[in-house]
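Worked example 4.2. Below are the chains of a multi-component assembly; read each line carefully before continuing.
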Amino acid sequence: MKPPRPPARIGTALPAPADVISADLLDGWLLHTAALRSGAACSLLPGQVLMLPGRGSGGAEASFAHGVANTAGVSTVTALEDRRIRRELLKSYEIPAPESAAFSVRRGYEAALAYAESAGWPVRLKPVVGEAGIEVISDVRGPEEFAAAFEYFQTAPTRRSNFTSSSYSFTQIFMPRGRTGLAKPGYEVMVEPQIPGTKLRMLTVDGEVVSALHRGGGETRYTDVLAEIDSSVVDLARRVAGLFPDLLCVSLEVLVANPAQPLDAQQHQVLEVSERPWLHVQYQVSAQTAERIAGRILRAVDSTAGEATHPIDVDFHWEGLADAEHELPVLQRAAAAAQVHCSAEIGDDLGGSLRGRLRGSADAIALLTELAVAGRLLEDPVMWAETTPR
Amino acid sequence: MRLSLPQLRRPQWLRVQHAEAIAYRVPMNLSAEHTRRTVAPLNYVISLTAVTADGREVTGLGEAQPRVGQTGDRHDRSWALLDGALKDLVGWSLDLADPLASIRRRTEVLESAAGADELDVAFRCRATVMGIETALLDCAAKASGVTLADLLGRRRISGVPPAPAALREADPEALESYFGRRAKRQRGPVRVICDGDAPSDLLKLEEVLYAWGRESARTGGQTLWVSFRRQLQADEARGVIDALAKWRSEGLAPGRIILQNPVVREETVALQRYADDATAEVLTGLDIRIMARQSGPHGTAELLQQGAGVLRTLHLRPGQAGGLLRSLEQAEQFLAQNPAGHILISQFPGASKITRMAHRDLAVAMPGVQHLTGAADVERRFLLSSRESRLRRSPALRLGMGLRLRYEALVARAQARIFHSSSEIAASGPSANEYSDVNYIAPIGSYAVRGHILEREALAYGLNTVRYNKSAFAATDGAHPLVHFRASRWPLSGVVASSVARNKEATRLLLQRHDCPVPQGRTFPGGAHEKALTYADRIGYPVVLKPAEGTMGTGVTPNIQTRSELSALLRQLDSGTHGSQPFIVEKHVRGNDYRIMVIGDEVFAAVERIPASVVGDGVQTIGQLMIQKNMERQRNSHLGQLRVKFNASAKYMLSKTPYSITSVPPAGERVTLAPTNNLTQGGDSVEILEDLHPSIKEASVRATRAVPGMRYCGVDFLLEDHTKPLEEQDAAIVELNAMAALPVAEYPMYGTPRRISERFMRETIQSYGLTARHQRAERLNLSLQVVGRVRDVGYRRWLARHATSFGLSGWVRAAGENEIHVQASGPTEAVSALVVLAVLGPPKAIPEFVRTEHITQAPPDGFLTPDLEDLEAEDEALGDSTEPGMFDDGADAGASGTDVLEEDTA
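Applying the procedure described above to all two chains together yields the following structure tokens:
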């Protein structure tokens, strides 16, 4: 059984405290970096909301949340996050998806076990509602492992250390029932019998496949196979993306024996579909490619975005701090450690803000800003971080 | 005899001033292992307030347990009878010189008003008649200064022993330990439940007797009581009697045996004769009494006639017999024929203390009563009544039944209410809106309305849909990919909008940048109490405290006046469900609370939200006014089940006034019962778009446009006066809601409803270029494909009942192991509501999705179930049947798990 793990900590090439970023924050960071490199003024808000005034079509504002363009409708992403709905959707468009059944975490254990046993081991367990790929427990073999896996989901999501969700996602179902810490009634787990195959991750931007990564049987690392995948595989990705015309990016995880071979000759299943690019996998194969894709995503929204040279020179204004005086030296130390030149002063103290100038690489400045707003740089989270090119 | 203290003077008469009835669902433990019912039954509690000749006020209580098939009651019929009866009672005088005769005359009038039919030959609505009768008796007893038992004619001093609890142990070891625990001296009967399967019943009895015999010194003077769940054939029953006689002669069985319901009623007398013959031959003496099932007045009369001189035990259930006085008559008739006879009095399951007390007093007044069954199945915490007086609490001293009604217990539970009064009650303010779809919406529940109305519009505009659960569905024109919706989430608002709106601090900073009025405030990390208190000192009190990511108004405390109050609330916040989470302290802005709903560049609807409150009328208590308010709210498709409650908030608000739940506020005075304006907490919505000042509209639109991609927004605006310009008042935008509930605009309590869901759908159709109708259809003709666990769970029957009660034509039939097909045709509101019902299903069903398409085939007349021959099997699966539409509150509709996933502010 593969136990669940927290979102991976991805190593950046930067000095501490900018040396590591959590996988679920990476997309937003790469977009932010691309935006700064393009010379855009950026405003970052909690939930990785990135606003670029004047950079959208017709001079409107371009914006992203976790690297997801604002064209994505709230109801579309919600449908994707509900695996039951996603399963029915794929099925109705004749796209192969795993057979599965959903069970109440509080009362469905017996039925779930019976299903697993009749479907055959190994099986996979995942939350019915949640981000693609998060907290999937796979290779569950036998009743004992099943019991342990099932029990894992009984704690409410917000109390599980491996849990993460997007800032536009559901909230209530993830919160605990009262003070028990248990998942609410209505929280369900999906059981999927596993078929043999290897994992293929693809990403489409504007319907075009821009990334294809494959992890062969027994391997731990992904390799770039964009040049090798069969056209039927590309077709599959496009078809899935076509189901969600308002999503700029669609990332999918496909189970297939050999992605270089036509799909009609082999068993294949679409395991996960997400509106988020999840570039962390690509980043670990080739950071450069990931950054390039981020630039592509940016340009899909802002066709004028170019690539500035490093380093950048910007003014910054960080608002919403509870105690700006206390935070100022913390910022200065962090900037220095990350090799970013920083001159800062306290803005209006009642409003709790810091302002000043930063000079350094775009990715380091973006990362410091992301960490600040995520509450992982200073003692308190920053509520609004504005970065303006000088 | 009588035990009550003698009264110096007794008034000559009493006159009824107010008459009230409240229907409520009995809170029962439906998940108890041995329970087979799936729906709790309904009771009516009746309260009559009268004034005596010497100016005293007394209130008499009664309770009706209407049970279809046994008491001849049916909700619509009984409720109408009750309404007429109570109206006629107001102003009526009861002669206290001979109260029983006076009351008897009155009930006779009711009996003839109730009418009779084939099934209920004597008279219908017997439980209702009993409820009224009990209330009258209680009134008379209280006015006369005696207990109810004395009024009825007390025959014994102490109460009647309760019937023994059934022995549930099955295997020999458990039986041994049961009898081991039972005190050797205990003389009460041992009661065993048998299933009506002769061989296994005999086996069980034998085991019980062996175990009993081993533990007790002798079973001689004791009684065995056998209750049969299902009836035996006559010859099987005779076999049981033979076996018992044999065991008695072997010394195994006790000398007295009661067999309850062993055979159908018609066979009872013959079986008793057989038993007497069989026991005559047993030397050690054996008395077997056959007790027939309780029945209505006609059934009992027949039984008494057939069994004259033979029958030695009678089971009376006053609710079924038609009242306390009728029961007394039947008892007297029975004992005249059988002076040594025994009587068992029982009540229906789900009896509150009012019913139990009435039975207790009846038992004391009735001759020959040996046992009285209690009701242990009602939730203990449910206290419908309480003692009227602490001093007069013994059975000898209490007046009437000594109970008074606790309205607290009924506020949230009342399903219907009747109130007639001799006083003039002026209507306070405008009457609430009535909605034509309220009966279609009630069964789907208040949460599902949010998702339902968008699908209704999609279907009305000719789109086909797929519904996944009560919140989520997708629509298509067949040419474009499915467009998704969930509650008030739609594809035209972007993820950024949702994310920004959720973070109140980010929203505030954004609005400030766009020159929108916002309250001065700041977010603090969890636990930062000192910083927060310092900040509050700086901005000045009063302040508001709220969780930074709270929803639905929970945890929000406005108008905090002092540092110590804030400090206490901060500590409370830490220990609440939100735990040590970020919170906001901001300046309290004076003003009324408005939800202004913006679509694109236009304010589409504006609603003022008023905290849950009641307005006095000088006659009714606050408890009564709350129930009246909830009844008014029931007419609202959205707010119907979101009742005004008597919870901790209400108690807190009342504590700040001179009133309690039993106070009568003066006419016109408004009493506020909640600290927040939330509609889901019982608040009222008043639609005011026409009067909204343009400057306020402009600010609302500007606020919405400030958030990227927010095509729809519910702006929470605090305003002193919505008709005046913004500059001339204290005003602030408190919150932006990306997923504001649409029903707030469509179903306001007062004012003009606005069909915002239609606007949503038209915009979606336009944005996606979908092929759709130009105009909204008022009628729909749809085919539904329901997939999931929908076979052998009573689904077709359940759906057909709802479709019929909605007045739809069409049919429902099975179409495979996991599939059911439906055609439904009728008004748009009704047919679209059925689609939501289809995805909910009855309790045991688990539908996975419902695919809906427009069709042209003409439907049949009425709603048919062509493949349901075996209706009994379906009914069996359903358990107790209730009539849909009447008092339906979505309680019996199932729900697929992941339906309520997130906040949806209203």
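Take a moment to check your reading of the output against the notes. The mean pLDDT of chain A is 92. The longest helix of chain A spans residues 23-37.
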